[in-house]
Each structure stands twice: as C-alpha cells, then as structure tokens.
Input
Amino acid sequence: MFPVRLDASSEPWSTETWVRKNQSAIKKNLTEVGAVLIEGLALKTPVDFDRFVAAYGSPSFSYNESLSNAVRINFTDRIFTANEAPSEVEIYLHHEMAQTPVSPSVLFFCCISAAMRGGATPLCRSDKLFSAFKAAHPKWTNQLTDKGLRYITKMPAVSDGSSGQGRSWYSTLAVNSKLEAEHRLLSMGYTFKWQDDASLKALSPLLPAVVDLEFGRRSFYHQLIAAFRGWPGVQENPASGVMFGDRTEISLDLLDTMSALAQEYTTELDWADGQVAVINNKMVMHGRKPYSGEKKRLMLVSMAP
Output
C-alpha cells in the first residue's frame, strides 16, 4: 500500500505519546515504502502540528535557513505553509530542494483545511521510477548517474507570491545586500549574474541526479519533471533551467519520457482535515494539484535534515 496508512483514532493518547509509541513504525515504513499517512489525530492548528513534529524528535530544517524558492508563511520555527502559489497553479513532481546543495530528508505535511475541489498531493515513488527508466533507457540513466545535474535559479528582488518559485534572493539567501548574497553563493559553489531588474540568476554547483537508499536500492533525486513541466522556458530551451553536470544540454525527449513514465508510479493523496503525512524526500516526489472552492485550503509543512 502506498502511502502506508496508520489510524490513531482508536488510541486515546495525546499526540506526543502517540508519535513516540509509533515512531519506529513510521521510520520503518519511510525506509521501505517512502510515505506514511496518519489519520485520527485530528490536528487543527499550527501549534497542534508543531507538537507532532517536536515529538518526532528530528532536528529542525527551518524555512528561513533553507534555500527553498517557494514563498511561504511561517507560523513557528518548525512550521510553515506548503506553498503560497495561487490555487490555479499546479506544482509538478519534485524532490524538495533537490536543486540546492542542502535539502531535507524527511517532510511532514499537515492538512488543517482541505480544499473543496482538487488540491490533491501527487506522490511518486522515485526508486521504482529509477528502476523502470533504467531498464527502458540505460544510456540516459547512465548519463544522469555519471554526470549529475546543475540548475539555474532565478530569484526576484521582491518576493512574488503569484509564482511557485517567487521567493526573493534577499529571503532565499537570508541576506541584506548584494555583497552578502554574492558571498553566500560563492561559499556554496554557485556562479551567478545580476540582471537589469535587480533579480539574480544563479547556476548551482554539481548536484546528484541519483542517490543511494538502504538495502542497496537507488532512486532518482532531482527537479527534472518540475523544471520540464513548470519552469518558464524549459520546454523551449531545457538549458534555461537545468543541464547535465558537465554543462551539456539535456534532451527534451529525456525530459518528456521521464515525465510520462513517472505517472505510472504516482498516487494522488486526497486530503481530509487533520491528516498528517510523513514523506521520505530522498525516495518520493510530491506536487500539488490546482484547487478551488470557497473554503480556504491550508496545508502546513515541516522538514528535517
């Protein structure tokens, strides 16, 4: 079953006690399957969710200190919104922050208020996708494994909430000036160029496209599908957003083929109020379907390294 479902409704314990009693089962399923959906805790507020994450006991991977390019709203040091992009914007399959040198290993999602229509979270098993893609396209798979990837990130001077990637370079890099931004980027191995509108265009250091999992398994770990399907200009010119680690171009055929094949390993998670999902970010991609309705959708996220 994917995701694995755990029902807490028959266990009359506090949130903290339930998490501690079930933590080993959650971690086991994250390793073996990659995603766990927890029902019955009926979490209603960001504080409730913070208690869940704190009880899990992992170090915090805060939004403020991350290189996430999504615009979010912070509620606590650990808890923030999933993405403030408008409801009609689809967020395509990706591993969280795989386009950056520092990314989380575990993601926690909490549905405070589900959308009236739409708003599902697609979940894709990237380990299964890797095996299938390797069997069908060994040459492309070897290129991705051996060469790795580099990403081009475009950061505006002012955060743009209408975009799924609209976080400003001030916020993304946690700096107050261009000079500080340059120092931060150089320390992480980026190259960059300032644009005429004071935005910033940065090329990442070499990053992996494939990672090793436990039990000898391997998994894709990248932003290729999100870039191909959602980043401006990539379908016309892939090198405007992503390239192989040796700076050679990735073919549109590779991107299109992987995007199509990923659907065979994707399950849509339809949310209900109060549910929590825990995701192995190294093994499972996620996204967001568009949504509508008078009821405001509120999804919260926390991350662990």
In short: The chain has a mean pLDDT of 96.
